[in-house]
């Protein structure tokens, strides 16, 4: 058996049913343990995102504003998975996969809240005077048994650094280069050079530079894609009722079914569940432990406040952006169509582009391509910060940060101009393996999260309501 085959099997397990049950199960446990407060306080969380209250003074400590922190986390999570991943899930798991994406996202709210609370509570100030936090610091500083916490923290950091170069960089650069070449005929070498220059310009400024860029680019790209998607849904509104009916019927159908908007797509409830949960988690990263690294940099007066703000990332990513992609495809009638050139089912970006084109013509293809480029580039920015902070934890110094930023930017050129499947698979596996130590951390420190949650509920949330 070749290394590629072994890697493929490991990857299938990492993103397989066992891991997905652990991810959703942890979210379910935390939701109950926190007395459903992440759900009950979603309105408070959304108001907090757009609050103009100045908490950058007094007891608040951090490097960037809470909004910039959320946008940095969203930059990394709102990516090609929202366009390509949703389409793939609907082909492999049927239209019903969308329902299971929603379900996993609901429990993911509690997971994202909990890991962000721990990231802020256990963060440290590094030798450059910046905040450093995330699951690795929660394990290092929160575990009473250091012989358990420290090795788990090290494993998480190693997995995060390795994942940052693949999932967070090379695959994203390759998606941008592919979109530009296929839609506008731009050579990949030119695209790679532009990405590298832009990345170096932004990343060398550190988290403050990343935060300033993300707070502008992320809302713009999300609103552009959302509005374009709503326009397509409205134009295809006559197909929406049957498309929605197919989504819910196939989500809970025990036997494999096909027809309607699904065309030749055949899928059972188990398939819908597997692919919906897998792509949902892959998209919003709840439970993987990446987003809390950005949460730790926020200026905030209480861990729970930033926990609620960062929790909305799962809401925006899956319940808003992914939903738009799913409803666009469901109402377009292209799900189940085949590629005339290859005879294979349309999937991934090709399926989403075909769906947009049913309403907007060639402009639909341009919009999806622009969306892929913006989503992918913002992911590069967000993941650089995750990788940098993880490397900083491993080497216990900030001296390597600028070298890492430069190397990370140059690797983007390689990703844009080269397709290395083994690199893709390996980094995908590392991305999934991050979840194991992170989930252990969430379960071990769940009482700490609950204490912070209930204290904040009494002192802050109830005041906000009255």
UniProtKB/TrEMBL annotation:
Q: Which GO cellular component does the record give, naming just one?
A: plasma membrane
Task: Give coiled-coil spans as residue ranges.
Answer: none
Topology of the protein relative to the lipid bilayer:
Multi-pass membrane protein
Molecular function terms from GO: amino acid:sodium symporter activity
Membrane-crossing segments per the record: 13-32, 70-91, 97-114, 147-167, 187-205, 217-235, 247-270, 315-335, 366-386, 406-424, 430-450
This one is known as: Alanine or glycine:cation symporter, AGCS family
Tell me the keywords, alphabetical order.
Cell membrane, Membrane, Symport, Transmembrane, Transmembrane helix, Transport
Which protein family is it in?
Answer: Belongs to the alanine or glycine:cation symporter (AGCS) (TC 2.A.25) family.
Q: Give the originating organism.
A: Lactonifactor longoviformis DSM 17459
Q: Which NCBIfam families match?
A: agcS
Q: Which domain of life is it from?
A: Bacteria
Keyword Transport belongs to the record? yes
Matches recorded under InterPro entries: Na/Ala_symport (IPR001463)
Q: Where in the cell is it found?
A: Cell membrane
């Amino acid at each position: 058996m070749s290394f590629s085959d072994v890697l493929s099997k490991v990857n299938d397990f990492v993103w397989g049913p066992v891991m997905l049950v652990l991810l959703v199960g942890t979210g379910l446990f935390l939701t109950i343990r926190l007395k459903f407060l992440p759900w009950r306080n979603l309105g408070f969380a959304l108001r907090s995102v757009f609050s103009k209250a100045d908490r950058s003074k007094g007891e608040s400590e951090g490097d960037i504003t809470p909004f910039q922190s959320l946008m940095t986390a969203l930059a990394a999570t709102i990516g090609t998975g929202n366009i390509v991943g949703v389409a793939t899930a609907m082909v492999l798991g049927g239209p019903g996969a969308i329902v299971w994406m929603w379900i996993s996202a609901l429990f993911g709210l509690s997971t994202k809240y909990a890991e962000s609370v721990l990231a802020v509570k256990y963060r440290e100030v590094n030798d450059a005077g910046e905040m450093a936090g995330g699951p690795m610091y929660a394990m290092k500083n929160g575990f009473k048994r250091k012989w358990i916490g420290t090795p788990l923290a090290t494993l998480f950091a190693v997995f995060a650094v390795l994942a940052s170069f693949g999932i967070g960089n090379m695959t994203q650069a390759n998606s941008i280069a592919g979109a530009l070449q296929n839609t506008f005929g731009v050579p990949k070498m030119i695209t790679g050079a532009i990405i590298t220059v832009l990345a170096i310009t932004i990343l060398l400024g550190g988290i403050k530079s990343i935060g300033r860029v993300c707070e502008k680019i992320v809302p713009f790209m999300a609103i552009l894609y959302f509005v374009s998607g709503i326009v397509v849904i409205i134009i295809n509104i006559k197909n929406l009722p049957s498309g929605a009916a197919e989504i819910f019927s196939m989500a809970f159908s025990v036997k494999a079914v096909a027809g309607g908007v699904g065309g030749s797509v055949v899928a059972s409830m188990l398939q819908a569940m597997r692919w919906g949960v897998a792509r949902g988690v892959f998209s919003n990263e709840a439970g993987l432990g990446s987003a809390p690294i950005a949460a730790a940099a926020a200026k905030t007066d209480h861990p729970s406040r930033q926990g609620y703000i960062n929790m909305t990332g799962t809401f925006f990513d899956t319940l808003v952006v992914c939903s738009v992609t799913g409803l666009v495809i469901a109402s377009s009638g292209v799900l189940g169509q085949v590629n005339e050139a290859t005879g294979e089912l349309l999937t991934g970006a090709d399926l989403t582009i075909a769906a947009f084109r049913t309403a907007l013509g060639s402009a639909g293809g341009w919009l999806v391509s622009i969306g892929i480029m913006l989503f992918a580039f913002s992911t590069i920015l967000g993941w650089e910060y995750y990788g940098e902070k993880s490397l900083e934890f491993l080497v216990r110094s900030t001296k390597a940060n600028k070298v890492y930023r430069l190397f990370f930017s140059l690797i983007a050129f390689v990703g844009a101009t080269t397709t290395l499947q083994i690199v893709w698979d390996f980094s995908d596996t590392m991305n999934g393996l991050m979840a194991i130590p992170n989930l252990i951390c969430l379960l071990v420190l769940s009482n700490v999260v609950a204490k912070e949650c209930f204290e904040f509920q009494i002192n802050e949330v109830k005041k906000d309501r009255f």
